[in-house]
Each structure stands twice: as C-alpha cells, then as structure tokens.
Amino acid sequence: MALLEIKGLQKAFKDVKAVNGVDLSIEEREIHGILGPNGAGKSTTIGCLLGLIPYDSGKVIFENGVGIKKWSKNIGYVPQDLAIYPDLTAKENVRFFCSLYGFGGEELNAKVQKALELVGLVDVADKRAGEFSGGMKRRLNLACGIAHSPKLIIMDEPTVFSCSCCRYF
Q: What is the distance between the alpha carbons of residues 44 and 30, in angstroms, rounded to a whole number?
C-alpha cells in the first residue's frame, strides 16, 4: 500500500494553471523527486499535499485512505527556506519542533539526540543557531523536520542539502 497517492492534482491561481494533473504514488522506502524550472508548480504541489494550499481537483490520499488532517503527524516537512529560531540552540530548536508532535520526557530527549547525530550537529548542540554557517543551518533545518521519526519526509528544494546526513535517506 502506498504512503502517498496523488491522482490528477490540479491547482490554478486566477488564469494561471500552476499544477496540471499530477499523478504520483510513493511507497515506503522510496525516494522521489519533482523536477522542473522555477514556476513549474513544484512548491505548489507540495503545499497542496500538505494541506496548506487548497487544490482545485484531484485527490491526495495517504496510507490506508487517510486524509491529511489525520496523517500529518507522519510527515516530516523540510521547507525551502530556513524554519529555525536563531536565538535558540540547535538542541532547543529540534526539541521545540519535535515536541509539537506530542513527544516529551526521555522519548523527546532520545529523538532530539538521534536527529542531531544524523545531521552531524551533536558537537554544537548547545550553540545558538544564529551563530551557525549556512550549511549548519540547513542541517539543523533538516533535523527539525525528521526528529519525530516521520514515515514520509518532504523536502522542498532538496538540492540545497549537500551534507553527509542525506546518505541516511
């Protein structure tokens, strides 16, 4: 059974068709990429399947026929732009985002530690994110998106990640 099934997805903004009939099926442990020039509708497609942008027609179906509202906890989203807090440490950033999924206590600590290990930021876990290099910020952004151990990871503009942590995916 597919983790995600997109059928005939369409989205227009006024008279501009941003997404025109996207069909995609993603099974567990598969990696897919959506390629296209700027303005091709890649980010719009992601916004539609995350429930952030209402689509005009088509279907977005998650595992076992569940809709986005019930399945969203299974998605790790890593946005194109950085979504970290510069005044918080790496550990505090990951802890915050992971806690949004209901984790607490030792389970939260273990998930934060694992995410920081995966992206190679354990040595700087107590350093403020605002002091990081661009690459370190990107790795922290990734850690925040995967700390809750999602079934599906969606990365908008994944080519910006050149870190060794991506070998785990």
A: 21
3-39: per-residue pLDDT in tens? 999 999 999 999 999 999 999 999 998 888 888 888 8
User: How many Å separate Cα 43 from the centre of its chain?
Assistant: 12
CA 19 to each of CA 11, 23, 44, 89, 127: distance values in angstroms, whole numbers, following the listed order: 5, 11, 7, 38, 41
In CATH, what number does 76-168 get?
Answer: 3.40.50.300
Beta bridge partner(s), residue 27? none
Average pLDDT, integer, range 41-53: 94
Other residues' Cβ atoms within 10 Å of the Cβ of residue 44: 20
- pTM, two decimals, is 0.85
| Cα distances (Å, whole numbers) of residue 103 to 67, 94, 106, 109, 139 | 22, 12, 9, 9, 21
pLDDT of 71: 94
Question: In the chain, what are the domain boundaries?
Answer: 4-66, 76-168
CA gyration radius, the chain: 17
CB 137 within 8 A of CB 129: yes
